Amino acid sequence: MKAPLSWIKDYIDVDGLNIEQIAHCLTMVGLEVEGIRLVGLPKPEAERHEFKYEGLTWDREKFVVAEVLEVLPHPNADRLVLCRLNDGTQELIILTGAPNLYPYKGKGELAQTLKVAYAREGAMLYDGHQPGQVLTKLKRAVIRGVESFSMICSEKELGISDEHEGVIILDADAPVGTPLVDYMGDAVFDISILPNMVRDASMLGIARELAAVTHRELRLPQGIPLPQGDALSKRVSLEVLNPELNPRFMLGMVENVQAQPSPYWVQRRLNLAGMRPIDALVDATNYTMLETGEPLHAFDYDLLRKRAGGNPPSIITRTAQPGETLTLLDGTVQPLDERMEVVADSAGPLSLAGIMGGMDSGITSQTQHVLLEAASWNFINIRQTLSKLKIPSEAGWRFSRGVHPALAEQALRLCLQRLLAWGGGRLVEGVLDAYPLPPQDPVVTLTEEEIISRLGAPVSLEEAAGILERLGFECTLQEDKLSAKTPPIRLDIGEGLIGKASLVEEIARIYGYERIPSKRLAVELPAPVFDTKLEAEERIREILVSLGLQDTVAYRQTSPQREARILPNQSIDPKHEYVRIKNPITPDRTVMRTSGLATMLELLEYNSKFRPSLALFEIGPVFLPVESQLLPNEALRLTVGLAGLREIPTWQTKTPEQRDFFDLKGVLEALLKGLHIPEVNFRPTERPTFHPGKCAEVLSGERVLGVFGELHPMVQEHYEFEALPVLAAELDADLLVALSRVEFEHQPLSNYPAMVEDIAVIVPEEVSAAALEAAIRQAGGKLLVNVRLFDIFRGEKLGLGKKSMAYQLTYQAFDRTLTDKDAETIRNRIVRALAREFGAVLRSQ
Amino acid sequence: MTDREAQLEQEKIAALTALEEVVSTEALEAWRVAHLGKSSPVMQAFSDLGKLPAEERPLVGRAANAVKQALESAYAVKSEQLRQAELERVLASERIDVTLPGRAVQRGRLHPLNQTLREVCQIFRDMGFQIYRSPEVETDDFNFTYLNIPPYHPARDMWDTFYTDKDGVLLRTHTSPGQIHIMRERAPEHIRAILPGTTMRYEQLTARSEIEFIQVEVLVVGKGITFADMKGTLIDFAARAFGKDARTRLRPSYFPFTEPSAEMDVECFVCGGEGCNVCKGTGWLEILGCGMVHPTVLEYGGYDPQEFSGFAAGMGIDRSTLMRYRVDDIRHFRNNDIRFLEQF
Lengths: 845, 344
Ligand SMILES: [Zn+2]
Fold this sequence. Notes:
The structure holds two protein chains of two kinds.
Chain A: E1 2-4, H1 5-8, H2 19-28, E2 32-40, E3 53-57, E4 63-73, E5 81-86, E6 91-96, E7 114-119, E8 124-126, E9 135-137, E10 141-143, E11 146-148, E12 151-152, H3 155-158, H4 180-184, E13 186-192, H5 203-214, H6 231-235, E14 237-240, E15 248-255, H7 264-272, H8 280-292, E16 296-300, H9 301-307, E17 314-319, E18 325-327, E19 333-335, E20 341-345, E21 348-352, E22 356-357, E23 370-376, H10 379-389, H11 394-399, H12 406-423, E24 426-427, E25 432-434, E26 443-447, H13 448-455, H14 461-470, E27 474-478, E28 481-485, H15 496-511, H16 532-546, E29 550-552, E30 557-558, H17 560-564, E31 591-592, H18 596-607, E32 613-624, E33 633-644, H19 661-674, E34 680-684, E35 690-700, E36 703-711, H20 713-716, E37 726-732, H21 733-739, E38 755-764, H22 769-780, E39 784-793, E40 802-811, H23 820-838, E41 841-842
Parallel strand pairs in A: 2-3, 14-17, 29-32
Antiparallel strand pairs in A: 1-13, 2-13, 4-5, 4-7, 5-6, 7-12, 8-9, 10-11, 15-23, 15-24, 15-25, 16-23, 17-20, 18-19, 20-21, 21-22, 26-28, 27-28, 30-31, 32-33, 33-37, 34-35, 35-36, 36-37, 38-40, 38-41, 39-40
Helix pairs in contact in A: 5-14, 8-12, 13-15, 14-15, 16-21, 22-23
Chain B: H1 3-21, H2 25-36, H3 41-47, H4 57-93, H5 112-126, E1 130-131, E2 137-139, H6 140-143, E3 169-171, H7 177-186, E4 191-200, E5 212-222, H8 227-242, E6 248-255, E7 258-267, E8 284-293, H9 295-301, E9 309-316, H10 317-324, H11 332-335, H12 338-341
Parallel strand pairs in B: 1-4
Antiparallel strand pairs in B: 2-3, 4-5, 5-9, 6-7, 7-8, 8-9
Helix pairs in contact in B: 1-4, 2-4, 3-4, 5-10, 7-9
The structure holds zinc ion (ZN).
Zinc ion is lined by residues 268, 270-271, 275-276, 278-279, 283 of chain B.
């Protein structure tokens, strides 16, 4: 909402407040000023400016009101004229090319002088010939042999609008010689209107808030008295079919109007408020809407009469009939459905109620008789229609937020007044007013205790009543109770408890949030309830970060195509269930993800062009639909991705080694150890995404925690990886979290020395390292405290299908120093066991 | 002085003179063999003692001892000198260019959003708040209706929503549905909790707008909770998050689930309130929305609004991280470009 200061001043005296202070007051009552555009007025002095200023200040000496006495032809140019001008101090000859002065050329001394905005040499203004707003200084120049040192300004040059077709012709009463800034200098507040404050999307609403917070008087414009008589009812009839959808519908009429330009001050205000001035008729409806917040619609009476076959038209408001269409003012043809409310006559729909008028019945530059509609519509219905048809509409924006039916009458009176004043013509006696459903304006009661217990501020009942009265509420104080009747300008105040909350908000807004004290919570802490899941999640992050991995935050939205990339054939399984997005933002974000792995591979792909070595992880949910549930399961996944080199090449390590399966396994082992997950074990498995020989499941006991491995070469081909190989893991983080322990028993330390010895055994190739180690530990018993594989050897000497596994064994007791004989006993036990289980042979040293 | 003694004295002078010429350990060893070895003049003097007349023996013996000691101590000094020189030579040869880059260590890092989120959570934990999380795919009821935003309410325009193909199921547009979940779980106990989580809005993806972002909701429900409590709590939070002297202000705003509602601004930490690009010239940064929990929401949550009151606040982790590090493009956060992440 763009509110010119000059307009607000029609309704409230702002003496003593500068622009900055006004903007502050508005912001602090909920009318946030997002910016201030200066249109002539200077930027106010302030210790600190809290708002963004833009625009142009008109120097008092350099810009004045002047009058053109005579328009003379230019001796050397047809498209230029010379103006004999009085600037209040002297007569001058001014050169201009403004087409709107051509009609006066060579007509001699003008009977009525033309008032103009005159800029003297050295004035800072916007260059009219450059696009946008380019500041320039008015300099002396010779144009076609005539010296020019000053000019008559267009709106563009003064920063009022983009208009540069002609110069501004001011209203005839403009005082010659007055500094222009005093005559029409302005500032425009750009105000963001909150959804519950549509009543303030109007100059009156803004003025009312400002008056309430600054304790000033609000001057309400009255308009003409409601015309009495029955002339109108003989020229048109009115019927409302659905009071729920159309609580009120009023009609008034002015005949013999002229669609001539509005007075300049009206045009200027409309421009500053962001609306294009058209002619007196259109401007009157727009001006009144901006003033009161009530959108109006004007019909051309003759067109309606023609539609009615020359008879008095019958206006009816109803829902559309199946198959009906309507061509709107903007030229679009809209299909209507039976839930959309229309204003119609006997020939069909005339306008889309509260949203936009039709092409065939609205006023034009030829209109002679204006039939003016001021109505009220059901905001939910308007909203539904708007969201179905997606039409940009200023009226619809307002009606869909709730406009009080009482505003219709006020707006009708004001608009009729403007039509008469700006468009001429004669008022037709009488109005039609169908008001089948007046709203009940809530009466809310409050006690001082109720106010204080909500705000925690010492607001007295008297002060509260004063605030509400300034906002238009009718208040009565009885004993210790305040009863406030909602003014007929707003629909946002509830009944009962909700009404009390609404009223407390109104009181707090105007009382000032700044004045409410700050307190610390005095209530006792609630009983502890811990989010242990979050704590475990954070521990996972902690451990992985300490292992040198980078944490990431990933999008939840993806597409089946993107997820299918992790499969060798990339085929989308039609049976794969997704949470599907009805209104996806792009074709590659149509579903909620079901795979953490797919996310991780994309992250590795994206980054592999930047670093030859990558180590990433991500913790986040996947969304798995469950047939019997409305909502999907949100399963927490941990994915880890490693790619490329083990380290970044440096001057010391010119060619670092590539990562392999065991780098990733090492990360997982360290993580699971850090989380104290019990009975961790690994076993080979196969998944389409992974290399069939380099893929494993990780388990805790028999519970599968996840799968990891090196990427299948066919999957790898689907991505543009520059860092290879790619290793990835996807783990069930919910299970990790559930199995992780924060309480566990530590391993005691022995005070006796440990004995260390190495053994190497030759076993068949198919014996797994895990099985061998388990057998060693089993046979070694409790004195064998550590087993470390340090070498694997294969060679001709050993024979085909054999390998030598070399272990370092550590023996230690808690109660004595072990002897060589102890070691020999344990070693023999191990060797015998391995021979028995695997046919292992001790390799001679 | 006997001849022998004189010879010894000459030998001493000769040996010490020769020692001065010695500059290497090898030459020193040769010198030792020549002047202190078995066949050296001094040692020879000892073995020849028996051949001397008895009265000369003590005199020559003493003289030989004195020369031997003198040579030995001179040798020790020289040996130490050479050792020092050798050490210095070796050390000099081992000198490195300390300005060469250190060995690369790959450090792991938390994502900047998770760093901010952790800080915010920690501040509220310090203030006695618990943490509560709820689903990201929600029902229309929890996301809107129970929060006092009935269907076709104009306030629905405030959230551009992703809907799913299941009727009444959507991607939550804010963390506020968690308010209803926790209230229904805890009622009639009082609540002091924060609700962090990812939320989603139907927006065009641009440098300034994201479709997914992290929010933290604050919720306090109890008996006698006032606007002043809310103001005090949030100012406390701001002091902990932005420094204890950070100026803040509350101004009226609108959220359907709170009344009265407010927006909290903190003095721009980039320009100190002077006005800059980050604060768009206002000197203020909007950091959170808040308000007293609407009676309808309390009722949906299972609390009697006659008896209970509360306040709620919501803040964006992405936005505050963006402002904090002057990130020019919000999409950096979820692009996870390693060159970006490595800076945090
Ligand atoms: Zn700033």
